[in-house]
Amino acid sequence: MSQTIVRLARRTDVASICELCKDEHWNYSVRMIERLLAYEPKGCFLAEVNGEFAGQVFSINYGKIGWIGVLIVNENYRRRGVGTLLMKHSIRYLLGLGVETIRLEAVPEIANLYRRIGFVDEFHSIRFLGTSRRQELLSGLSIERMSVKEMPRIADFDREYFGGDRMRVLKRLYQASPELCFYSQEDSQILGYIISYEMETGYRIGPWICKPHGVRFPVIARELLLTCMNSIEVGTKIYVGVPETSNTAIRILHNLGFTMTAKCIRMRFGKRLQEKPKAVLSISGPESG
Hints:
Elements: E1 4-8, H1 14-23, H2 30-39, E2 44-49, E3 52-61, E4 65-73, H3 82-96, E5 101-106, H4 111-116, E6 120-131, E7 143-145, H5 151-162, H6 167-176, E8 181-186, E9 189-198, E10 203-210, H7 217-230, E11 237-243, H8 247-255, E12 259-270, E13 280-282
Parallel strand pairs: 4-5, 10-11
Antiparallel strand pairs: 1-2, 2-3, 3-4, 5-12, 6-11, 6-12, 7-8, 8-9, 9-10, 10-13
């Protein structure tokens, strides 16, 4: 009779986690998995069946909002309840911290697993792929490179639109690629920001958030994206995850030659959020929101 246990993930598990991601063609680097472990050490779980690595899941607490991602079960142990067991551990962990709303992004093939344990669909999240190339900035807007001292202001701005405190995530993303983090401000007020970081192959854009008011909103959004892309080596693959609610981001990406590669489903467990969806042009990633 098989025995399944769930335990906390450790740094010594990173190689096995990355191998499982690679098996599923998920574009996660060692550094990305190490960051996930650092964000929430007590919220990262592995399943073992008779001592063999069978699956993984990661969760992050942002206050009243929690996030779950990178749920993968080894194909040799699927349809045995391992995924459900891992999800229940993550949900219990986040609820125990006072989280009221848990979110995730599901590939359509396993969305029913989440629905069975109480998640509901919210909207689609679209995956775009493009290639970096030099683009001329036309607006004359002031786009500045972030520094450490701006991080508290960026985090406060982000909280207004994301709905939770992502300071530790934003700080580590900045530390990973400070040369790819930019913001725009006027009269000392943040108007928007963008972060990019390296994946196993290529770079991901996100978070990418702008204040959604006035005729300059799409201009600021575009100039932030172009500034970021201009800082990446020409010909590099660029990945962007866009909520379908962000028509501005979708138009910008289409105009820049990006193509849609997939659609995932944003799902929620718990309270519905009061949010400002137009401001969020891209997510930081399906693993962290």
